[in-house]
Amino acid sequence: MKAVQRITLASPVLNGNERKYVLDCIDTGWISANGKYVTEFEKQFAEFCGTKHALTCANGTVALHLPLLAYGIGQGDEIIIPTFTYIATANAVKYCGATPVLVDCEKDSWNMDPKKIEEKITSKTKGIIVVHLYGHPADMGPIMEIAKKHNLFVIEDAAEAHGAEYKGQVIGSIGDVATFSFFGNKVISTGEGGMVTTNNSELAERMKLLRGQAMDPHKRYWFNEVGYNYRMTNIQAALGLGQLENIEWHLGQRRRVAAQYIDSLAQYNDLFTLQPEMPWAKHTYWMISILLSDKIKASRDEIMSLLDADGIETRPLFYPMHQMPPYFEEDANYPVADRVSSRGFNIPTNATLTDEEIEYICSRLVFHCRNNL
Ligand SMILES: *Cc1c(COP(=O)(O)O)cnc(C)c1O
């Protein structure tokens, strides 16, 4: 059995009103950072998350920078983040001149381990950024308790977790702020784009101001401070609205794909395991992740090359922050993140994968693993 076409890891599916809304922007000339699609996308995204406010912005990285700026984070401050995340989480902290303080992840969900947070809190700690990795929510209950006890804010980096749920509550409304990305490979996309959600009206006002160069709302072209141009365009929002109208379909397709993978692969847990779905979680399966057992002699990268030769695109799990030059730690002690990162990779998780493609991927994966015992 040979795949005729390469099976891609992730690609956007624009099968709703996206085309119609984008053409409307072009026909009316509303292509820049104002317009009805920006307003409507924000309104509907806030409804989706159950928050008072949702603010569009240029991408998921500046979506993290905005609330940190609004909280006044700067030099000398420390922000707790998981070491096992995409680098944007750490970079946003660095942009403020503050220091990201790293925490290891849990063996089960691979998210920040609540039991390892308190030992990292100092008098300089101002907040926690939680990441819902690969679409699986972090264990928010204990994290919110720790934050409350130490008077810290909580930002949820939900770039990968649109529509995920923690104990029945949609992600985006549990922490003080949540941030989303609409990059091309995310659950829904605007090409590049981001969103910040919050119930805190004062914080929302402050983020809105900073997003628009901090222009005085009562005096046009008057600026009292240095702001940023972090706006999203009406065209991007038009794409986003089309995507959001269909988000239940997108999430449903991911669950269909995930269910078939689990059904076909769960019996091989001597060869590898999947990132599990905790009983209290609704995983969005942004990415299906495989963790190779130590019984397999081949390296993770070797297994990935074999799949590549079969026409199956994969990608390594994130490298933990403490391993890379900008955030390198000499005496790093993050055993769970090190292990998961070195033995894990993502397999295709498109909304459009067919049953046959999924079966093909599963059979090649099992074949290569068995061949390398
Ligand atoms: C994608 C992603 C971001 C950043 O989003 P961009 O839109 O690419 O800037 C931030 N955090 C996590 C965990 C992500 O996966």
TrEMBL record:
<comment type="similarity">
    <text>Belongs to the DegT/DnrJ/EryC1 family.</text>
</comment>
<dbReference type="InterPro" id="IPR015421">
    <property type="entry name" value="PyrdxlP-dep_Trfase_major"/>
</dbReference>
<dbReference type="InterPro" id="IPR000653">
    <property type="entry name" value="DegT/StrS_aminotransferase"/>
</dbReference>
<dbReference type="Pfam" id="PF01041">
    <property type="entry name" value="DegT_DnrJ_EryC1"/>
</dbReference>
<dbReference type="InterPro" id="IPR015424">
    <property type="entry name" value="PyrdxlP-dep_Trfase"/>
</dbReference>
<keyword id="KW-0808">Transferase</keyword>
<keyword id="KW-0663">Pyridoxal phosphate</keyword>
<dbReference type="GO" id="GO:0008483">
    <property type="term" value="F:transaminase activity"/>
</dbReference>
<keyword id="KW-0032">Aminotransferase</keyword>
<protein>
    <submittedName>
        <fullName>DegT/DnrJ/EryC1/StrS family aminotransferase</fullName>
    </submittedName>
</protein>
<dbReference type="InterPro" id="IPR015422">
    <property type="entry name" value="PyrdxlP-dep_Trfase_small"/>
</dbReference>
